[in-house]
TrEMBL record:
GO terms for biological process: pectin catabolic process. The keyword Calcium applies. This is Pectate lyase. Its cofactor is Ca(2+).
Length: 316
């Protein structure tokens, strides 16, 4: 059953009085009473290190009408058919829908997935992968109960089928991806991470997302020795890390990470962690630990001694 979504309902309805938006990202577009006719205004709003990301702004609209999925030969009107087209596209949804992906959804460059005005769930199947692609906006999806899949022959472009290995069950995986903006997503209960950003990905912003009920939430860099991740720049802003989360909000390696104006509630192990000398700037975050003493740790440097991490650049 689809859960009630107050954001979608509010966008559809009319309110009296002046528009009052305090969120610095949403204020870019949300007070426009004709936002549905000016959807591409969103492309001017990317904050942080993903600033300048425009997604499918320069392309046509593509309307998803069919929630079915075929990982090798997707039908026109399905989400997989849309994201594998080799041209800029602004992808919207005709109606609310549940999409169960057979295999990981490979998103190509210059795409916007815009679920505003609909209630769209990616669930009970594979997750979303952005591999060596750039300039992508994903906005307004619910992503949950993501499962590992076996891999196989998967459409990764309109003119190409690729043999993929098994997927881990991440909600969203960014692999060598650049200029990616993830905004207003709801993520929970996946088999592996909710969002993994690895293998030299850069210029990423995760904003206005809601995370609950999961173990390892955000992983930025998968190896202490993968030096290409030193160039990684990620903004984590205006997110709600709700109840039922364990750790990695985020867990950082090597790169530069700005964690700003997030709300953390009742984690089980730690909130922000890192290894291999990452630079972490933490500003304006609120941490509300539970009443259990052992769950009050905000930062974690693994099992390293102070001598090993004393020169890391962590600023709060």
């Amino acid at each position: 059953m689809l859960e009630y979504n107050s954001t979608r309902r509010a966008l559809k309805g009319k309110k009296k009085g002046p528009c009052k938006i305090t969120n610095p990202v949403d204020s870019c577009w949300r007070c426009d009473p004709n936002w549905v006719k000016n959807r591409k205004r969103l492309a001017d709003c990317a904050p942080g290190f993903a600033s300048g990301t425009t997604g499918g702004k320069d392309g046509k609209f593509y309307v998803v009408t069919d929630p079915s999925d075929d990982s090798a030969n997707p039908k026109p009107g399905t989400l997989r058919h849309a994201v594998t087209q080799l041209k800029p596209l602004w992808i919207i949804f005709r109606k609310s829908m549940i999409i169960k992906l057979e295999q990981e959804l490979i998103v190509t460059s210059d795409k916007t997935i815009d679920a505003r005005g609909a209630n769209v769930h990616i669930c009970y199947g594979a997750g979303i992968t952005v591999q060596f692609a750039k300039n992508i906006i994903i906005h307004g999806l619910h992503i949950h109960h993501i499962k590992p899949t076996t891999g196989g022959i998967i459409r990764d472009a309109e003119n190409h089928l690729g043999l993929r290995t098994a997927s881990d069950g991440d909600g969203i995986s960014l692999f060598g991806a650049t200029n990616i903006w993830l905004d207003h997503l709801s993520l929970y209960d996946s088999s592996d991470g909710l969002i993994d950003v690895i293998q030299g990905s850069n210029a990423i912003t995760i904003s206005n997302c809601h995370f609950i009920d999961h173990n390892e939430v955000l992983l930025f860099g998968a190896s202490d020795t993968y030096v290409a991740d030193e160039k990684m720049h990620i903004t984590v802003a205006l997110n709600l890390f709700g109840k039922g989360l364990v750790d990695r909000m985020p867990r950082c390696r090597l790169g530069f990470f700005h964690v700003v104006n997030n709300d953390y509630t009742h984690w089980f192990m730690y909130a922000i962690g890192g290894s291999s000398h990452p630079t972490i700037i933490s500003q304006g975050n609120r941490y509300i630990a539970s009443s259990i003493y052992v769950t009050k740790q905000v930062t974690s440097r693994g099992y390293l001694s102070p001598e090993q991490w004393k020169n890391w650049n962590w600023v709060s």
